[in-house]
Structure to design on (266 residues):
């Protein structure tokens, strides 16, 4: 929603200097977008929230007096009377600060369960009442949490873990890019390859080679998108959330790829 407003052709005609605060939630916000909202939309006290419908719905939130760096790059800290931990998805062990893992929350806000669906409830809430969010997160030493993306969206290329959010944040800084989403697609040699869907700003033109040249020397070579698809819009839910699984399906079909062609690499 914020991206659409910032990119609106008539954005400059409206006076927004009376705005002061607001809430951004629903999907991870790119750092560059957050900066533009604070500057161009004149919302200096905007905060970021994170949670799930199943957690009533907010578990983390930044504060209006948090340092700017923390407010634009994290979802803040855990809400009062709610617990959180970050675990290794394979072992269930709690990881140390600075290490990516699955974010879990527990407390009064966590739902009792899915209506008449014990199987789905047990898959999400363990015996100790921890809600397993399915989101990858990193906790800093000061308690602020950064959401890296969905566990199922993590790309494993040649045995290297690639977090789409990291690449998206980097590409958002490109002056021609209005919106970008990164997904993994099957690859016979590496198991998965990086694919970026890019929407360029109105009146701009961009090429695949231009985007890759922008990445070279700035991010690791294995993180540079092998495939780049320019698109005027991305598939979304009725509430506007990006559907990466649909983007993956479309990319696989357009590129003539197949999961059967991919091999597991060590």
């Amino acid at each position: 929603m914020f991206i659409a407003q910032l990119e609106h052709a008539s954005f400059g005609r409206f006076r927004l200097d009376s705005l002061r605060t607001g809430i951004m939630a629903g999907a991870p916000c790119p750092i560059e977008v957050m900066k533009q909202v604070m500057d161009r939309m004149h919302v200096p006290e905007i905060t970021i929230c994170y949670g799930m419908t199943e957690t009533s719905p907010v578990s983390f939130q930044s504060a209006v007096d948090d340092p700017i760096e923390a407010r634009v790059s994290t979802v803040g800290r855990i809400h009062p009377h709610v617990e959180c931990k970050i675990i290794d998805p394979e072992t269930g062990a709690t990881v140390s600060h600075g290490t990516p893992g699955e974010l879990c929350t527990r407390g009064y806000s966590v739902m009792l369960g899915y209506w008449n669906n014990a199987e789905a409830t047990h898959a999400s809430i363990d015996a100790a009442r921890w809600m397993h969010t399915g989101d990858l997160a990193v906790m800093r030493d000061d308690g602020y949490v950064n959401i890296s993306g969905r566990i199922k969206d993590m790309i494993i290329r040649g045995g290297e873990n690639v977090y789409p959010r990291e690449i998206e944040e980097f590409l958002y800084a490109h002056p021609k890019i209005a919106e970008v989403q990164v997904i993994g697609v099957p690859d016979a040699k590496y198991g998965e390859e990086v694919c970026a869907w890019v929407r360029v700003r109105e009146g701009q033109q961009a090429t695949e080679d231009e985007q890759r040249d922008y990445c070279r020397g700035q991010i690791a070579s294995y993180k540079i998108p092998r495939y780049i698809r320019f698109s005027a819009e991305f598939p979304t839910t009725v509430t506007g959330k990006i559907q990466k699984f649909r983007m993956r399906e479309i990319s696989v079909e357009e590129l003539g790829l197949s999961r059967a062609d991919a091999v597991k690499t060590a």
